[in-house]
Automatic annotation (TrEMBL):
InterPro entries: I/LWEQ_dom_sf (IPR035964), ILWEQ_dom (IPR002558), Sla2_fam (IPR030224)
Domain of life per record: Eukaryota
Protein name: HIP1R protein
Region (Disordered) residue spans: 250-279
Keyword Transferase: no
Annotated organism of origin: Probosciger aterrimus (Palm cockatoo)
């Protein structure tokens, strides 16, 4: 009992209930996301027109397709999870199976949470973009996060699934579909951003030579400021990732309850030993 993982402040027998609750919570989050996107669609049609309406509709339609793909993914994952439990528990109860495989169960819970969180963040970003209060880049980042969390869910399910499982094959197919729909969101977002920026392009034809020179100098200053800021943000991103990996490594070591073996050193090229020299 002392060697069992203690990552969650709950009893081991409650893990099974948590899996079902998280799967249900994820499904509810996706259903709510679909409803919110439909509301945003009707609001966009009432408050915008022309190019902006076309861009908003294309982005929201791609987000709706992505939500539908995620919903199917979660349903298939739930079916596969039930299949894994039924085939692996033997004479044990479902709760005993989850307690015995607590690390796998916790991974499944974490993956499900990540999918639901990604869907919620995508909808919030889309809402801000439609209201012209957000950034198109937020949608792109959210799409990448959803693709990553989907891969995490598939990996967690694949660990204990039978290789010839039909549900596993369906889950992998759903994962590919989610990735494709996420790529569509990225593509529609980028094309929409280009359309809006082209429409809002400044006209310099009426400016005097002095005004043009002043605008040119101000733009050069802004470019240098942005380049410096970009460099700083990249350094910050690198440090954040280092800290993330360090915490994740510490977490895994604490969960395992034992030290992980160090990776085997890479062997260098074997060199021919020197010939013995005559005295």
């Amino acid at each position: 009992q002392e060697l069992r993982p203690k990552s969650l402040d709950i009893k081991q027998e409650e893990l099974g209930d948590m899996v079902e609750k998280e799967m249900a919570s994820t499904s509810e989050a996706i259903e709510d996301a679909v409803r919110r996107i439909e509301e945003m669609m009707s609001q966009a049609r009432n408050e915008s027109s022309g190019v902006k309406l076309e861009v908003n509709e294309r982005i929201l339609n791609s987000c709706t397709d992505l939500m539908k793909a995620i919903r199917l993914l979660v349903m298939t994952s739930t079916n596969l999870q039930k299949e894994i439990v039924e085939s692996g528990r033997g004479a044990a109860t479902t709760q005993e199976f989850y307690a015995k495989n607590s690390r796998w169960t916790e991974g499944l819970i974490s993956a499900s949470k990540a999918v639901g969180w990604g869907a919620t963040q995508l909808v919030e970003s889309a809402d801000r973009v439609v209201l012209h209060m957000g950034k198109y880049e937020e949608l792109i980042v959210c799409s990448h996060e959803i693709a990553a969390s989907t891969a995490q869910l598939v990996a967690a399910s694949k660990v204990k699934a039978e290789k010839n499982s039909r549900n596993l094959g369906r889950l992998q197919e759903c994962s590919r579909n989610v990735n494709e729909m996420a790529a569509n969101v990225v593509a529609s977002t980028k094309s929409g951003q280009e359309q809006i920026e082209e429409k809002d392009t400044m006209d310099f034809s009426g400016m005097s030579l002095i005004k043009l020179k002043k605008e040119e100098m101000e733009t050069q200053v802004k470019v240098l400021e942005l380049e410096k800021r970009l460099e700083g943000e990249r350094v910050r991103l690198g440090e954040l990732r280092k800290q993330h990996y360090a915490l994740a490594g510490t977490y895994d070591a604490e969960e395992d309850g034992e030290a992980k073996p160090a990776p085997a050193p890479r062997r260098g090229i074997l060199k021919k030993p020197p010939l013995a020299q005559k005295p």
